[in-house]
Write a structure and sequence with these properties.
The complex is a heterodimer.
Chain A: H1 3-23, E1 41-46, E2 52-57, E3 71-77, H2 84-100, E4 103-104, E5 107-115, H3 120-133, E6 138-141, H4 145-158, E7 162-164, E8 179-181, H5 186-200, E9 206-211, H6 215-232, E10 238-244, H7 252-260, E11 265-268, H8 272-284, E12 290-293, H9 300-306, E13 314-317, H10 327-340, H11 346-365, H12 370-378, E14 383-385, E15 388-390, E16 402-408, E17 411-418
Parallel strand pairs in A: 3-5, 3-6, 6-7, 7-8, 9-10, 9-11, 11-12, 12-13
Antiparallel strand pairs in A: 1-2, 4-5, 13-16, 14-15, 16-17
Helix pairs in contact in A: 2-11, 3-4, 5-6, 8-9, 11-12
Chain B: H1 3-34, H2 41-57, H3 63-86, H4 94-116, E1 121-122, E2 132-135, E3 138-141, H5 142-164, H6 166-176, H7 178-183, H8 188-213, E4 216-217, H9 223-236, H10 241-261, H11 269-283
Antiparallel strand pairs in B: 1-4, 2-3
Helix pairs in contact in B: 1-5, 1-6, 1-8, 1-9, 1-10, 2-3, 2-4, 2-8, 2-9, 3-8, 5-6, 5-8, 6-8, 9-10, 9-11, 10-11
The chains are: A alpha/beta, B mainly alpha.
């Protein structure tokens, strides 16, 4: 055969192969559940301590799928990377909760952790791995709103419910049926800090330095700015609005610019690592005003790295043992101290609550079906969490009070508690 | 922006540039001799910072002892990396050595994650470097001054070594023509080890000062400075030591000034380095001070 003929044949072969492979329908990844339960009425009859017999009365009565031998619950957190402290703190709380409650619906609960490395792509991969490889029935996580949003996309398609421990950006749950959270959201948090700045500190002008690579930070800055302008009545009260990126180490340029405008307070909505260095550099540049932040400042590294520079800074967060409100809180503090020999922090408490909330929803749903658990989650009312009484609204967000902490003598101190308004 | 603020920005920029210059020289020296981009350089930088940190925190050495001890340890690490990852591949095609460099970089980073943990550690800043000075409105801490001073001393030292000593001449000879230098009786292995040692020493000095300036230690802290300093070396002319110094200062001052003049673009600070890289490759690929070298057959 001539060379051209051979070439023509191989090219035609290749094109044919491509066409055939393109025509082959891709196998759908989404596990479509055929059973759509409209309004299940679950009667739970406890026969013995070990067995729980349920009668599910539904309009279309379909026998519930049998429970697996082991109910797997996933957890995806940043254990490494820029947000490692938050992930590790949360994981401590989730682990403790699993230790205290390791059974649901009569089956043992296996907790599976996947590290999302503080990276959005890894978060989606982690979620895929939990759902497809580990076959979890529900997930807890993640610290970091960007990570939660990335993982949430995957969970939404797979109909696996996720309980967020601490992501506060509203977009994490908005429009999603399978994501709820155990914490408050940023519109509230931004307003809390703005009010604190104006009412308690008497600030008339503010500078904002945000982490432009983090959805959490960008959202929180916007909410702070809106409330601050509203409270001062002056649209020019935000005298400087600049940004940095996660992983940045040098903020002197942004700070020199911001401090040059003489703000009464500087609000930085990024994470603890950058915040610590930002505060340090701000003090070195001679800034003596207040430095404020959000719940992402709440990590021991803030003080370790910031040292004397973070003395007196304040930030909003979710929990402080002193602000403990429910009976469960005291028991939690005791159990935590016994297990880890230190006081619990906000993220461990939220991780604990998220896990308990998920298990509670599984119990109320009576099955490990994703839709049923999701419905049960949205129906959560006055759940006794250690961070407060949790009631989820129609978006799956918790309406809770915030705590403002400050740094005094190298330690975090409880400043005040702010009720939802 | 008034003059004082401009001076403040300039001081910040020069201090940052000095650090970049120190690290960029390591890249350029290794490239000059081996035509290899040592991707592990940023991780030797990271390892040195952790060594200095553990010297103070774990072994309770006074800071000056720990910092001084880190320097030879970093040199040993650099030479070990060369011996393990690059020497066996000296006869292999260049891409093998490149892949090996990436491999050892990933190895060091992940060893760091496992051994040091993912959470940031606080690097010590001795009071000597924390003095606050105020020159009529321009506030710098003594560390800034020390960084500039120590960088200059080290850069002058490197310059002297490479251009005024016999060893330096050997290094330049090996960089010029590997085979002929060997034929001339130069112990090429020794020269290469020495190059890596010097590069690592500069990286270690840079990392200690970096740690004092930006006290957050992370296992991946070497990635971004490594990348930026590699860009600095390319912009200045890879293979040229003055080029690396120039590139480092150019990048440091440029980054700060971009934010100083366009604070709304502060989030795009990093883009400056990458834009500079693209521009220089388009306009003058051999770098600002690089020489056009013809491809040897």
């Amino acid at each position: 055969m001539s060379r051209n003929k051979k070439r023509a044949i191989s090219v035609t072969f290749m094109i044919a192969t491509l066409l055939f492979s393109a025509c082959a329908a891709p196998t759908p990844q989404v596990i479509e559940k055929e059973v759509v339960v409209e309004k299940p009425v679950i009667e739970t009859v406890v026969v013995e301590k070990e067995k729980v017999v349920e009668k599910v009365v539904t309009p279309t009565s379909v026998p519930p799928a049998p429970l697996p031998d082991v109910i797997k619950v996933g957890c995806y957190e940043p254990m490494t990377g820029a947000m490692a402290a938050g992930g590790q703190m949360t994981w401590d709380g989730v682990k403790l909760a699993n230790k205290l409650k390791s059974e649901v619906l009569g089956k043992p609960v296996e907790l599976v952790l996947v590290d999302n490395k503080s990276d959005k792509t890894e978060a989606a991969t982690a979620m895929s791995r939990l759902i497809e490889a580990e076959k979890v029935v529900g997930v807890v996580g993640s610290y970091g709103s960007s990570l939660s949003m990335a993982g949430g996309e995957v969970a939404e398609k797979a109909h696996i419910p996720v309980v967020g421990c601490s992501p506060t950006n509203p977009l994490v749950t908005k429009g999603k049926r399978f994501y709820v959270r155990a914490c408050f959201i940023d519109p509230f948090q931004g307003a809390v800090m703005a009010k604190y700045a104006v009412d308690e500190l008497g600030a008339k002008t503010a500078a904002i330095i945000q982490d432009v690579a983090q959805d959490y930070s960008v959202g929180l800055s916007a909410f702070f700015r809106n409330t601050f302008i509203e409270l001062t009545g002056d649209p020019k009260s935000i005298v400087a609005f600049t940004s940095y990126q996660t992983g940045d180490t040098d903020f002197t340029a942004q700070l020199t610019y911001a401090i040059g405008k003489n703000p009464d307070v500087i609000f930085s909505s990024g994470y603890y690592g950058e915040a610590a260095m930002l505060c340090k550099q701000a003090r070195e540049l001679g800034y003596e005003g207040a430095l404020l932040g959000g719940d992402a400042w709440d990590a021991p590294e803030l003080i370790e790295i910031g040292g004397a520079a973070v003395e007196g800074v304040s930030f909003s967060t979710h929990y402080h043992p002193k602000g403990a409100i429910t009976p469960a809180s005291a028991k939690f503090v005791e159990a935590f101290k016994a297990e880890y020999d230190r006081e619990p922090d906000a993220f461990a408490a939220l991780g604990f609550d998220a896990y308990m909330l998920l298990l509670d929803a599984i119990e109320r749903a009576g099955s490990v079906d994703g839709d049923a658990i999701a419905d049960a989650l949205y129906a959560t009312e006055k759940f006794e969490g250690v961070t407060g009484w949790i009631t989820l609204d129609e978006n799956g967000d918790a309406v809770k009070s915030a705590v403002i902490k400050t740094v005094k003598n190298g330690k975090f101190e409880f400043l005040t508690s702010v009720e939802p308004f | 922006m008034d003059f004082n603020m401009f001076l403040q920005h300039l001081a910040n920029g020069i201090s940052l540039g000095g650090l970049y210059a120190l690290i960029a020289i390591g890249y350029t020296m290794v490239y000059g001799i081996l035509r290899l981009i040592n991707f592990a350089h940023g991780d030797i930088f990271m390892m040195s910072a952790y060594m200095a940190f553990y010297g103070v925190s774990l072994f309770a050495l006074p800071w000056y002892v720990s910092f001084v001890l880190t320097i030879p340890l970093a040199a040993v690490l650099g030479m070990a990396v060369e011996r393990v990852a690059y020497r066996p591949l000296r006869e292999a095609p260049r891409i093998s050595a490149l892949i090996s460099a990436i491999g050892i970089s990933l190895l060091l980073e992940n060893v760091g994650v496992v051994v040091f943990g993912g959470r940031p550690k606080a690097f010590p800043r001795p009071p000597l470097f924390a003095q606050e000075w105020n020159f009529s409105g321009v506030r710098i801490i003594s560390l800034t001054f020390f960084i500039i001073a120590i960088s200059c001393v080290l850069l002058v030292g490197v310059f002297y070594l490479v251009y005024r000593t016999k060893t330096g001449r050997a290094m330049r000879a090996v960089a010029w023509d590997f085979e002929v230098a060997r034929l001339m009786g130069i112990n090429v292995n020794q020269v290469i080890s020495l190059t890596f040692a010097i590069g690592s020493i500069l990286a270690a000095a840079g990392s200690i000062m970096w740690g004092m300036k930006f006290p957050q230690l992370l296992p991946l802290m070497g990635v971004v400075p490594g990348l930026k300093c590699f860009i600095a070396a390319v912009v200045g002319g890879i293979g040229s030591i003055p080029g690396a110094m120039l590139g480092g200062f150019f990048l440091g001052v440029g980054e700060i000034m971009i934010v100083a003049f366009f604070p709304e673009l502060a989030g795009f600070k990093y883009a400056f380095a990458y834009l500079a890289l693209i521009l220089i490759l388009l306009v003058k690929p051999t770098g600002l001070l690089g020489k056009v070298v013809e491809e040897k057959a």
